[in-house]
User: Fold this.
Amino acid sequence: MVLESLPVIHDALAPILANKQATDAIWIVGAAVVASTAIRALLFLGNTIYTSFLRPAKKLSKLGKWAIVTGATDGLGKAYAKALAKQGLSVLLISRTQSKLDEVAKEISDKYKVETKTAQVDYSKFSEDVAANLRKTIDSLEVGVLVNNVGISYTYPEKFDKLDEATLRNLVHINCDSVVLMSHMVIGQMDKRKKGAIINVSSASGLFPMGLLTVYSGTKSFVDFFSRALSQEYPNLYIQSVMPFMVVSKLAGLKRPTWNAPTPDDYVRSSLPTIGYEDRTLGYWAHKVSGLIQYLPFNLGEKFTYNTHADINKRYLKRQARITAEAAGKKSQ
Ligand SMILES: NC(=O)c1ccc[n+]([C@@H]2O[C@H](COP(=O)([O-])OP(=O)(O)OC[C@H]3O[C@@H](n4cnc5c(N)ncnc54)[C@H](OP(=O)(O)O)[C@@H]3O)[C@@H](O)[C@H]2O)c1
Assistant:
């Protein structure tokens, strides 16, 4: 069809192409588009290099004596806790498992010579009593930094109706309620002192809708909007939405780093110095590059991500079916 219409297009363009002034104008417009795209690409590259490697970081220990980190015993939370202790902040570590909390608290206080406290909290059961107790502890501390890091995802990408109710509730309670309530516990004292930082760990899954991770994607976009709106209300505070792509962790199911999936320590080393400069960050140079996917036309980014998730779903279910069949075979022998 296109080929058939080529002579028609050629005939239609012929008078324009025969006109030197018209072809000169086309060349000029074309060159301007190419030049402006090249300048924008260079500016993006320069900005990414400057903000990722060269810009001086804010001194976070000036914001208050204590940092609080939720989900602090593994992955990104542990990395944030270590990085903040390294800057001289004492750390209140929060997660579910007391033995892991004790281990990380000891590791941090031994290495960085700062005070540590722990609070055993399961955010899937964050009752009024548990919250009131935690609020009492927090009220007794001068909190400079809160990292709302705790979060869970799906075991594998799946359609919404296949998820059980407990999983749905956990995703919303752990990923959203924790962020709202923890922020509420510290913001009054930060606002009074006119200093403090709240770092909300969202996800690149909150950049645009990601089907087959629908609830995770929705909760992370909630964290992002909550964070950005809160930042408007409290311009004196540093309130940041952090939106990583893949980082090596249990949640991500990744054991080894790659060029675009750093270790949690490397990710935090890169994202922490953006505090005070960026209210919303992808945090790591390779993630900033991956983030360009959101600007592709015709929702190509969304379509590509959906197809990738559908593929992972198929492979996961196939592997599970094989494991079940092998187990059944062994039983019957
Ligand atoms: N890793 C990635 O690729 C990636 C990408 C984008 C965004 N993120 C976000 O980054 C955050 C951290 O992820 P991660 O990969 O570092 O996770 P992770 O390695 O699985 O660590 C999760 C931490 O949260 C704690 N935790 C889990 N469930 C909890 C609960 N119900 N109550 C209290 N604490 C709980 C865990 O300790 P216990 O088990 O002892 O409680 C652990 O300390 C999450 O919000 C995630 O959505 C991660």
In short: The longest helix spans residues 20-54. The mean pLDDT is 94.
